[in-house]
Amino acid sequence: MIVDLVRHASTGRAGHFDGRTDPPLLPGAADAICGGCAGMAWSRVISSPRQRALHTAQALAAPQALPVAIDVDWAEWDFGDWDGQHRDAIAVDDASRHALQAFYQDPGANPPPNAEPWDAFEARIGRGLRALAAQDDAAPALVVSHAGPLRLALALACGLPLASSWAVRIDYGTRLRLRVQTDAADRLWGELIEVRQA
Q1: Could you tell me the residue range of the domain that residue 47 belongs to?
Q2: At 6, is the pLDDT very low, low, confident or very high (cuts 50, 70, 90)?
Q3: Number of domains in the chain
Q4: Alpha helices (runs of H) in the chain, residue ranges in sequence order
Q5: End-to-end Cα distance, the chain
Q6: In what order do the strands lie in the sheet with 44-47?
Q7: Using H for helix, E for strand and C for coil, what is the string for 99-135?
Q8: CATH number of the domain bearing residue 167
């Protein structure tokens, strides 16, 4: 199954850990994403429940009059005590700077205090990918989500260490095109076909 994973349009909050925090899109932000996807056809459109993803998905689905299915598995990770804060507001002393650096190196082993359990996050993104891999649509599916789920999906589908995913820029509107499949043992297998920046 071919899947286009798109990060939502800009909220103007780059550098913030917005997981359950749900700021609105900047006015007109979805238009730039739509322009970059003009002429693309999808079999289905799936969105995170967060308004910033849902409004982006609705804008992308509109030219084809496709319905948008909300899937909670594609919500951004809950960053716990860091949620809604800018990374500069977190890194205020040596201990917090070290915690932030450790998080970027291995978020599963070094999560923010009170964050969503990493294994639960990994399980739901894996579940979302397996659901897509089970389909055999003629056209790609579109999933509109967030930077965290896109990075984790890339790592899970392609068998990459999560830390390696930081080498891929996933800004607002970035589109990752993946081929996603499962093998006989239900293990995910995939390949990165294209990376497109908005």
Answers
A1: 2-77+117-196
A2: very high
A3: 1
A4: 29-36, 51-61, 87-90, 94-105, 118-133, 147-158
A5: 23
A6: 68-70, 44-47, 141-145, 2-7, 175-182, 188-196
A7: HHHHHHHCCCCCCCCCCCCHHHHHHHHHHHHHHHHCC
A8: 3.40.50.1240
pLDDT tier, 3 (very low <50, low <70, confident <90, very high otherwise): very high
Look at the block and give the residue holding tokens 């349009």: 9
pTM of the model: 0.95
Angle, CA of 58, 60 and 63, to the nearest 5°: 100
C-alpha atoms less than 13 angstroms from C-alpha of 65 in its C-beta half-sphere? 0
Q: How many CB atoms lie within 10 A of CB 126?
A: 18
Write out pLDDT tens, residues 80-135. Answer: 999 999 999 999 999 999 999 999 889 999 999 999 999 999 999 999 999 999 99
Give the tens place of pLDDT for each residue, 173-197: 999 999 999 999 999 999 999 999 9
Coil, helix or strand at residue 51: helix
What is the per-residue DSSP string for 61-76? Answer: HGGGT--EEE-GGGSP
